[in-house]
UniProtKB/TrEMBL annotation:
<dbReference type="GO" id="GO:0097237">
    <property type="term" value="P:cellular response to toxic substance"/>
</dbReference>
<protein>
    <submittedName>
        <fullName>Thioredoxin reductase gliT</fullName>
    </submittedName>
</protein>
<comment type="similarity">
    <text>Belongs to the class-II pyridine nucleotide-disulfide oxidoreductase family.</text>
</comment>
<dbReference type="GO" id="GO:0016491">
    <property type="term" value="F:oxidoreductase activity"/>
</dbReference>
<dbReference type="InterPro" id="IPR050097">
    <property type="entry name" value="Ferredoxin-NADP_redctase_2"/>
</dbReference>
<feature type="domain" description="FAD/NAD(P)-binding">
    <location>
        <begin position="6"/>
        <end position="289"/>
    </location>
</feature>
<keyword id="KW-0560">Oxidoreductase</keyword>
<dbReference type="InterPro" id="IPR023753">
    <property type="entry name" value="FAD/NAD-binding_dom"/>
</dbReference>
<dbReference type="InterPro" id="IPR036188">
    <property type="entry name" value="FAD/NAD-bd_sf"/>
</dbReference>
<dbReference type="Pfam" id="PF07992">
    <property type="entry name" value="Pyr_redox_2"/>
</dbReference>
<keyword id="KW-0285">Flavoprotein</keyword>
Length: 319
């Protein structure tokens, strides 16, 4: 018979580990599934999370797993989720795993993270997390006051991009803006000039490592050497098809990608299914993911407690 849990947390990144910690502290029989595909694997350090600033991402995960060790109701399994079916009696879900086994859980928390969708620039993927970054709060400090770049994204209107570029300039006034072929109106170009940015309208032909920096080549033959480059990228949920097959609503935003829709209690559109972290927000940072994990777990626990209360009420024949 398939093993049975009150809660299955899918994903042992910052959001899933945080959810599991709160569920352990709530005495919930919990299984945490993780298949070891880490979106931030290329980053040398993870920055900006209280007490865990400037640590390698594996150290952050190991610390999170260690925190779980003292909670005997929490089990962590290396396993890959392949599909989820609601049980016929509405008492929960059957989770099918890649090794052919299955397990049951009354509630599920998707903490499966996101897959970054990068502009098609030769060499960019290899530099992602090393010289090319998604977030100034994660990596801006490390390249402060150095020559840096900003690649405008195709889904972002130039006046909106201008605001993110102004934010990036907080870390360095030696800023080069790449339109990467995006049409930029005269007013925005004039603003870039008045702000002191270098501006290259041409598509980028390649990016490559250059010492401890990055060389950006444009299709018009320019080569610009920078310490790092911030890229307006988008993302989509990991496990998107599993979530969609289950009936969870996924919303799309032309600027930042697609996300599982959740309410302010981290509930998806499917009763009993919650989501937290990068899978449901464009704000990809450890702190936000961990906070959402805590919240998802607290509302899962609340729902289980209230469910029990209504059962007692019904069994006692109370109105
Ligand atoms: C290159 C890079 C650098 C970054 N640097 C920083 C930084 O310096 N500071 C910062 O705050 N944030 C940083 N971030 C963002 C941060 O890493 C994320 O916001 C955070 O990890 C999100 O946590 P999460 O739990 O939502 O997802 P993740 O950490 O991505 O965890 C998702 C987990 O789900 C598991 N999983 C997925 N699918 C399945 C499945 N089918 N079955 C089982 N398990 C599954 C994966 O194995 C993974 O462990 C960076 C991101 C990237 C890409």
């Amino acid at each position: 018979m398939a093993s049975s849990f009150e809660v299955a947390v899918v994903g042992a990144g910052s959001s899933g580990l945080s959810a599991a910690l709160t569920l352990g502290r709530s005495l919930r029989k919990t299984v945490v599934l993780d298949n070891g595909t880490y979106n931030n694997h290329a980053a040398a350090t993870s920055n900006g999370f209280l007490t865990r600033d400037n640590v390698p991402p594996p150290a952050l995960r190991e610390a999170g797993l260690k925190d779980l060790e003292r909670y005997e109701t929490v089990e962590v399994r290396k396993a890959s989720l392949e599909a989820v079916q609601p049980k016929d009696d509405d008492s929960g879900f059957v989770l099918q795993l890649a090794d052919g086994s299955s397990l049951e859980a009354a509630k599920i928390i998707f903490a499966t993270g996101a897959r970054d969708v990068l502009p098609e620039i030769d060499g960019l993927e290899a530099l992602w997390g090393k010289r090319a970054f998604h977030c100034v709060y994660c990596d801006g400090y490390e390249v402060r006051n150095e020559p840096i770049g900003f690649v405008m994204g195709k889904g972002m209107p130039p006046p909106v991009a201008a605001m993110f570029i102004a934010q990036t300039a907080n870390w360095s006034d030696k800023l080069t803006v790449f339109a990467d072929g995006l049409e930029v109106d005269d007013g925005t170009q004039a603003l870039f000039k008045a702000s002191g940015y270098e501006f290259y309208p041409s598509p980028i032909s390649s990016m490559s490592e250059d010492g401890d920096g990055v060389a950006v080549k444009t299709e018009t033959g320019d080569e610009i050497k920078l310490k790092g480059v911030f890229v307006a990228s988008s993302s989509e949920p990991a496990c998107k098809s599993i979530l969609e097959d289950l009936g969870c609503e996924v919303t799309a935003d032309p600027m930042s990608g697609s996300f599982v829709k959740v309410d302010d209690q981290q509930k998806t559109s499917v009763p009993g299914v919650f989501a937290c972290g990068d899978v449901q927000t464009p704000f990809h940072t450890v702190g936000i993911a961990a906070a959402a994990g805590f919240k998802a777990a607290a509302f899962v626990n609340f729902e289980l407690c209230v469910g029990k209360m209504f059962k007692i009420k019904a069994e006692a024949g109370l109105a």
